[in-house]
Design goal:
157 residues; mainly alpha; 0% strand
Length: 157
């Protein structure tokens, strides 16, 4: 059962996650703009700018995932148990997100994608990560609600 300190901890983690999502959204905006620029009029410079934006996104996202794994995951373990479905889902999502983004980063390093294909892949990546963040934010809001409800129920008992 969640106590007041757990509810406060959830709210603090939620605030940090939402703040980092703002940073990631700005990185996603930069990737999207770079992809649009490459698709509108490809050039070596625009392709390098897109590749740099993808790298910056990777760094921001990886930092964020590490934070969630070090702060949110232990909290979920205390609330739900260490191998709860919610904890497993978080780790699975992180594994998939890292793998997806790393495969794109690797392709930028090896030149495996022509600029137009890289831009198309980058656009899909942006859409995917935006959808993931929206889902995560709803899930986190539900966690805050569950915790507040558990606290209220405990106070009534």
């Amino acid at each position: 059962m969640a106590g007041a300190s757990t509810t406060e901890e959830i709210r603090e983690i939620e605030a940090r996650i939402l703040g980092e999502h703002g940073t990631i959204r700005r990185a996603l905006d930069r990737v999207a703009a770079g992809a649009s620029s490459v698709l509108a009029e490809p050039s070596d410079q625009k392709t390098r700018d897109l590749e740099d934006a993808i790298w910056d996104l990777y760094i921001a996202l990886d930092d964020h995932l590490v934070m969630e794994e070090s702060e949110l995951l232990p909290l979920l373990g205390r609330l739900d148990g260490p191998s709860s479905p919610r904890s497993r889902r978080l780790l699975e999502e992180h594994h998939l997100q890292r793998g997806l983004l790393l495969s794109v980063v690797d392709r930028t390093e090896t030149g495996a994608l022509d600029p137009e294909r890289l831009a198309a892949v980058a656009r899909r990546l942006v859409e995917s990560f935006r959808a993931d963040m929206e889902y995560e934010e709803r899930d986190l809001a539900d966690l805050c609600t569950e915790s507040a409800f558990a606290l209220q129920s405990a106070a009534v008992s």
